[in-house]
Design brief:
There is one protein chain. By secondary structure, the chain is of the alpha+beta class. The chain is 31% helix and 25% strand. The chain contains six helices and twelve strands. The strands form three sheets. A five-stranded antiparallel β-sheet has the order 2-3-4-5-8, with helices on both faces. Strands 11-10-9-12 form a four-stranded antiparallel β-sheet, with helices on both faces. Strands 1-7-6 form a three-stranded antiparallel β-sheet, with no helix packed on it. A hairpin with a 5-residue loop joins strand 3 and strand 4. The protein is globular, with a radius of gyration of 21 Å. The chain starts with a strand and ends with a strand.
């Protein structure tokens, strides 16, 4: 699957999974990765167009390392706010034109103030809690060291930002983090309802299962292993037999 997405007027492009605060295409700070490998308690905050926080809480009784990740748009940055205004005006004017009401012009008075957007950005914070095993942390550390993202950097021209993102060119770290986010991470107040998460380890792969109280399950295995219905049934039997680790 390939995606090409353009943004304009200084807005930052963030591509993430449907419900997780996983920022793709932007490497986390090296200090976080080093601390994650050893599960050293720490909190690192990065300020940019996006405010991102990486908080390592420490090891749980089962040995997994609990990590809190969050991000939200930094409307305190004048460039971000100005970009938001430009794009909002453009879309609003387009809507007026489609309704054949070209006489109405969109002005700054029609746009939320910077103070309002700062509060809105914080309210719309994406949050995620992850519980990594020692092997998963080592794998993330090793994948990060490759720095092998093949996506081109964003282009800035006349105050506009364009960013082309191809999912087939993601870095090793991004690919692994996306797999793990499905299996060992959870968001507060998940819109899909409460869930239970399990990790089932096999000789050639680890399969992560999320069982929702609404009656549907999701499966994700490392090494791009295909999962058919027969395999799903087998994994579920292993969970019911207590052979898989309960993560959440």
């Amino acid at each position: 699957m390939k995606k090409k997405i353009l943004t304009s007027a200084g807005l930052t492009l963030i591509i993430s999974t449907a419900v997780y605060a996983v920022t793709i295409g932007v490497e986390p700070p090296a200090q976080y990765i080093n601390n994650l490998k050893t599960c050293t308690k720490s909190s690192i905050k990065e300020n940019g167009s996006l405010i991102t926080e990486y908080t390592i809480k420490g090891k749980l009784p089962n040995g997994r390392c609990e990590v809190y990740l969050s991000n939200y748009t930094n409307f305190e940055d004048p460039k971000v706010y100005e970009g938001f205004k430009t794009v909002t005006k453009s879309f609003a004017q387009m809507a007026n034109n489609m309704e054949k009401d070209k006489s109405k012009q969109i002005t700054d008075a029609d746009i939320p103030t910077q103070a309002q957007m700062i509060e809105q950005g914080k309210k719309e914070k994406d949050e995620m809690v992850c519980r990594f095993s020692e092997n998963e942390r080592k794998a993330l550390y090793n994948a990060y060291q490759k720095h092998d993202s093949k996506n081109p950097p964003a282009k800035v021209e006349n105050g506009n930002v364009s960013f082309s993102f191809d999912t087939s060119k993601m870095s090793s770290y991004d690919n692994l983090m996306l797999t793990l986010s499905d299996g060992v991470c959870q968001i507060p107040n998940d819109p899909n309802g409460k869930s239970k998460k399990y990790a089932c380890e096999y000789a050639d792969t680890t399969c992560y299962v999320t069982k929702y109280e609404k009656g549907f399950n999701s499966f994700k295995c490392t090494n791009d292993r295909d999962i058919d219905f027969k395999t799903m049934d087998t994994i579920e039997k292993h969970i019911n037999q207590g052979m898989c680790e309960r993560i959440f």
